[in-house]
Design brief:
Helices cover 37% and strands 19% of the residues. With 453 residues, it is an alpha/beta fold. The chain is globular, with a radius of gyration of 26 Å. The protein starts with 11 loop residues before the first helix and ends with a helix.
Amino acid sequence: MKKENLALLCDFYEFTMSQGYFKQGLRDRICYFDVFFRKVPDGGAFAIFAGLEDILDFVSHLSFSEDDIEFLRKQELFDEDFLAFLSEFKFEGEIYAMCEGELVFANEPLMIIKARAIEAQLLETFLLCTINHQSLIATKANRIVRAAGNKPVLEFGARRAHGSQAALKGSKAAILGGCLSTSNTLACKLYGLRPSGTMAHSWVQMFESEYEAFKAYVRLYPKNPILLIDTYECFMGLENAIKVFKEEGVKEGGVRLDSGDLATLSVALRQRLDKAGLSHFKIVVSNGLDEYGIEALKDAPIDAFGVGERLITATPNAIFGGVYKLVASEEKGIIVPKIKISEDRQKSTTPHLKRVFRIYDEKGKALYDELFIYDEILPPPPLNCQRVELLRCVFKEGKPCVRVPSLEQSADFCRQQSLKFDEDLLKLKPKKNYKLVLSKRLKDLKKKLKTRF
C-alpha cells in the first residue's frame, strides 16, 4: 500500500495555535503533555493500551509537503515565516509510553510527550485518534475473549467497520486483545495475522441443492471444512453436512450456525454429530455476538465464536475518551506544573511531570498503581512488595529508541499481564475498582493549584 502523508490529519486549531506560539515567542518553550483516559468503556475495570507502533511510525515521518503548505497558504490565515517553519518541520521531542498490550487504568498517563510547544501541539490529533480507536477495540476484544473462556474467538467484523482503516486497525487491535484470527485478508498480509473464514450463504444458494453446495466445497477445501448450515433450515443443513463429511472421508471439520437460539440449537447439533460418530467435529456460532451474548452461552456445547459488528464497532460503548492535556512547561530552566480545572470534577487534571508505578505483592499480583512527581524521592514499597515503573522512553533524538514487539508477542504480553490481577477485575462487571494512588506531594500540589484560581 502507498504510504499516505498524514501530516494534515490534525484539528485545524492546532495550526492556528501553533502560529500563535510562533508569533508570541513561545515556539521553543518545552511543554509536557499527558495522554490518558477518564473512564473504562463498558463498566470494566481496565483497558488495553494499543496503537504505539502506528504512533512511532507517524512521528518518525511527520513532515509537511509542498502541497500541504500550499493548502495552508490558501486559508489566508498563516504568515510566510510560519509556513517556512512548517516546511522544515521535524519532531525532535521525547515520548514516553506504556508497553503495547499493557493493562491500563483511568486517569494515569499512558504516554507523556516532552517537546517544544508547536511540536507537541501538532501531535495531539493523530495520537488521540490512534489510541482512542485501537485501545477501544483491543479492550472490547479482550472482554469478549475473557467471556469466551478457553474457546477461541474469530474476528469477522471488516464489513461492518467504519471504513477501511478502521477495519484494518480494528483487526490488528482485536488480535492484540486476544482474538485467535481475523477474516480481514489485507490485515493478515500487513500484520502477519492468521486468516479465518467459513463459507457464505450465497455459495449454498448458487447450487441446485444444499447437498451439492457442500459436496463441491468439501472437494475444493478438504482440510478442516466448516459448513454453514442455516441457509434454509439448520437441521436439514446438518444432515447434508454429515452426509458429505462421511462420503468424502473428512477427518476433521465442523458446522457453523449464524441464526436462531444458539444455546438450544447447539445442544441438538452436538447430540446429532455425536450420534453420527463425529464427536470431534466442531460447532462454530456467530450472529451479533458480544461479551454478554457469549457469557450466556458459556455452558453450551460450542467450540468457537465468530464476532463481527459488536467487536469492530465496540457496541454499545464506542467511545474510549482519551485526552491530551498540558501538565507542565519549562520556564527559565524550571519545570512549572500546569492544571486544568473544571466544574465537572472528572475533567480536572492531575498536574506536573509524573512517574507511574505498579506495586506487586510477593506472589506477583498487582495491588495498585501510584503516581509521583518526577523528582520525588521514592519511599520504599510496602513490605515484600515490588515497585515497577510503567512508562519508558520510546522516542528520542528524532527516532524511536525501542523496538515494538511483534503483534503476537504483544498479545502474549497482554495475556500474561492479565494473570497478574485479581480475578474480580477480570469480570465483565467487577465489584471493586483498581486503586490509583497519588503521592502526598502530588495530592498537595493538585489541591494548592485548584485553590489558586
